[in-house]
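Reviewer comment 2.1 asked that we show a complete input and output for one of the modelled complexes. We chose the 4-nitrophenyl beta-D-glucopyranoside case, as it is the one discussed in the main text.
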Amino acid sequence: MTRVSFPADFLWGAATAAYQIEGSPLADGAGPSIWQRFSHDPRLMAAKGDTGDVACDHYNRMESDVALMKALGLKAYRFSVAWGRVLPQGTGRVNAAGLAFYERLVDTLIAHDIEPLCTLFHWDMPAALDDRGGWLNPDSAEWFADYARVMFQALDGRVKKWVTLNEPWVVTDGGYLHGALAPGHRNMFEAPIASHNLMRAHGRAVQVYREVGAHQIGLVVNIEPKYPATDSAADAAATARADAYMNRQYLDPAMLGTYPDELREIFGEAWPEWPTDDMALIRQRLDFVGINYYTRNVVTADASWPLNAGPVRQDATYTETGWEVYPQGLTDLLVWFKDRYGDLPLYITENGAAFYDPPQAEDGAVHDPLRVSYLKKHFAAVSDAIAQGVDVRGYMLWSLFDNLEWSLGYSKRFGMVHVNFATQERTPKDSAKLYSQVIATNGAVLND
Ligand code: PNW
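Response of the prediction step:
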């Protein structure tokens, strides 16, 4: 393997999301979110009985959790704000007690010299707004902008990196097209509308930030590079459609102000004509883009539209969520981003894997060799992209803790820190020990 190397100020961190770790979703005057509803509805939630009611109890353990981050050596921490803690109805009245939690979190991080990266929307829309149509309501862009303004005004002095949305594709595909995620709709006509309003909301929040914010703001997308299974023309066309649907549907409007042509082909009569003004609103200057990378996809034309899992490859390793381990995809997508959208600071805002971890050893250790191997290969993949001239500024491991993996519940463990959900005991796994060394040596340990 070629030697890895990272810029001196490379930002090493870990990521979480509010509903997945906090617990106490209704504490201190918070309004319920769509995930509160969804996880309590046995008709909708796949992992029945698993909810975010307690999760990692981070809401009550924030101080000791930040101390643990410090002990691990994290330089940055990416978290999300539960919109409904701050605005219980989604708009209007601010709940000072909810906002205070995030002010304390940010102050504690800074006191430990850990840089906060704040994501405004990681899927937990206030239920009161879903009652008004959620992301299908064109007013949602303005609701989000108002919420964003509250957060910027409260915290921009202390938070220097902001993220508008986490993974609009997952919100739409899971929430409005396939129904596996909140709010659980399955409607091809809704999907493009939800996507478009999410992107309008992103654009409006960036506009507000340019009025009241002084630091940096960006968008986080999940990118899954698509590779044709064969060199047939049909597979090439199917690959282009899959890439347009999952990857370019969000980056093209944000970066170029246009939607990929393939979306008309994919959605047919469900694809609306969008006003030109909307496209200008969506395309705002960004300070960075955050990329979440987990896997790739190999596309065959004969599989059903538009997402297909691709053939299972005998020569590949798969994670517990069924995702192929393919580190080269991370290098490829970073180089692709630069070629298509030009030079912009990039952060890996999520990367990691769920594996069955063996039971704790007698000395309490959690040996997770598969995750250790996954991480080493992906660190090297980032280093390769940097060597090829891509401006990657940091890496946030998904995830700090084992947590509520959305509709899959607590069965899928992504953490570098093991959480015993009965006792809330935290135990750094071998992968956390590796990561500490990687951070302490800025990656040099990987060359030993
Ligand atoms: C991301 N896909 O979700 C989320 O940002 C996290 O909250 C989540 O826990 C993590 O990845 C692991 O799943 C994704 O199907 C969900 O391509 C699905 C996909 C990608 C990302």
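The chain has a mean pLDDT of 96. We note this here for comparison with the apo prediction described in Section 3.2.
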